[in-house]
Amino acid sequence: MTDKIFLEGLEFYAYHGALSAENEIGQIFIVDVEMKVDLQKAGHSDRVEDTVHYGEVYEDIQAIMLDQPVNLLEHLAERIANRINSHYNRVMETKVRITKKNPPIPGYYNGVGVEIVRVKS
After folding, report:
1. What is the pLDDT of residues 95-114, one digit of tens each?
2. Within the chain, which residues score under 70 in pLDDT?
3. Dihydroneopterin aldolase/epimerase domain spans which residues (predicted)?
4. Global model pTM greater than 0.85
5. SS in 3 state form for the chain?
6. Is-catalytic flag, 100?
7. What architecture (CATH level 2) is domain 4-119?
8. Per-residue pLDDT, 77
C-alpha cells in the first residue's frame, strides 16, 4: 500500500535544544510528516470521516512543538509519531522529519535534523 497523507514545511518558532542559548533565544523548526493510510474508501466516498483530517493532525503537531522545551529533536519526533499513531486509527505508519534551520553551530548548511519512521503496533 502506497497511499500517503503528508504535511510539509510546517514552521514553528520554539525553544528546544540541548544548549541554554537555544532555550533562551529560540529558533525556527520545520516539521514534515508523512502518514501511510489506505485512502481507497475516502477516494470512493468523498467523506472526511473515511480519511485522516490533516487539520487535526496539524493541531496535534503544533501543540507538541509549542509545548515545554525539550533537549532533543529525537524526543519531539517520537512524541509526534506516537500521538499520530495512537490517535488516528487509519494511520498505519508515520514518518516525522524535524529540521533546525539555524542551530548554533558554525558552518553553512540548509539545516540539521532527524527523521524517524514508526509503524503502528
Report:
1. 999 999 988 888 888 999 99
2. 1
3. 5-118
4. yes
5. CCCEEEEEEEEEEECCCCCHHHHHHCEEEEEEEEEEECCHHHHHHCCHHHCCCHHHHHHHHHHHHCCCCCCCHHHHHHHHHHHHHHHCCCEEEEEEEEEECCCCCCCCCCCEEEEEEEECC
6. yes
7. 2-Layer Sandwich (3.30)
8. 98
What is the average pLDDT value for the chain, to the nearest integer? 95
The count of residues in the chain is: 121
pLDDT of residue 103: 84
Contact 15, 24 (CB under 8 A): yes
In whole angstroms, give the CA distance from residue 10 to residue 81. Answer: 15
Q: What does residue 93 show for φ and ψ, rounded to 5 degrees?
A: -155, 145
- What does the block give as the cell for 98? 524535524
CA distances from 62 to 8, 45, 94, 97 (A): 13, 29, 16, 14
Instruction: Spot the catalytic one: 36, 41, 95, 100.
Output: 100
Say if residues 71 and 93 touch (Cβ distance below 8 Å): no
